[in-house]
């Protein structure tokens, strides 16, 4: 008899190195798209949570991966929900223009991993998973759309939700 797979959600981190400071006029078209794209994410089917800087509407002011690197960290109910938002919504237009605003990455810049449903990943956890992907390649702990693993395959690697914290309380929970 197999043990049941715990309920899991898909966490996603991507990092992007800005070509110019975030307040530079050459980055303005990207900045102007942030609010509508984030609003679309927040209301997308399968969206659970996204990182937002305290007192802000997004995470572009955070620089945990370097002075010129912005981060996007989110959680989705399924890989399909994240794929649909990323490649079948207005978000795709931002991706088409990314070379105007961001440096081309020579190493992995996006990582996916399964988390227990209700767990809100930390930035440190996300950067750790990206480092694992860069160092070891895809695995059930850190993968990409092109090299994905199911929640069942990742079940032995799911981190427990800390007692008294880390649970998602609303779709916009910080």
Describe this structure in words.
The protein is of the alpha+beta class and 174 residues long. It is built from 6 helices and 4 strands. The protein has a 4-stranded antiparallel beta sheet with strand order 2-3-1-4, with helices on both faces. The longest helix is centred in the first third of the chain and has 16 residues, at 28-43. Residues 161-174 have low confidence and may be disordered.
Radius of gyration over alpha carbons?
A: 16 Å
Describe the strand arrangement of the main beta sheet, using strand numbers. Answer: 2-3-1-4
Structural class: alpha+beta
First-to-last CA distance: 39 Å
**Tally the helices: what do you get?**
6
Helix content: 25-40%
Mind describing the biggest β-sheet? 4 strands, antiparallel
Low-pLDDT runs: 161-174
What is the element string, with H for helices and E for strands?
EHEEHHHEHH
Q: How many beta strands in the DSSP annotation?
A: 4
Mean pLDDT, to the nearest integer, reads 87
What share of the residues does DSSP label as strand, in percent? 15-25%
Instruction: Label the overall shape.
Output: globular
């Amino acid at each position: 008899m197999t043990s049941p797979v715990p309920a899991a959600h898909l966490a996603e981190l991507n990092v992007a190195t800005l070509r110019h400071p975030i307040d530079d006029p050459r980055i303005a078209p990207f900045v102007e798209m942030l609010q509508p794209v984030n609003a679309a994410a927040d209301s997308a089917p399968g969206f659970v949570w996204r990182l937002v800087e305290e007192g802000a509407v997004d995470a572009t002011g955070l620089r945990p991966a370097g002075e010129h690197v912005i981060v996007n960290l989110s959680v989705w109910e399924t890989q399909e929900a994240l794929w649909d938002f990323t490649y079948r919504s207005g978000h795709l237009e931002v991706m088409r223009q990314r070379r105007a605003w961001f440096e081309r990455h020579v190493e992995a810049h996006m990582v996916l991993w399964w988390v227990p449903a209700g767990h809100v990943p930390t930035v440190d956890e996300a950067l750790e998973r990206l480092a694992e992907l860069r160092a070891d390649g895809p695995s059930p702990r850190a993968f990409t759309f092109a090299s994905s693993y199911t929640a069942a395959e990742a079940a032995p690697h799911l981190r427990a939700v800390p007692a008294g914290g880390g649970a998602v309380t609303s779709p916009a929970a910080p």
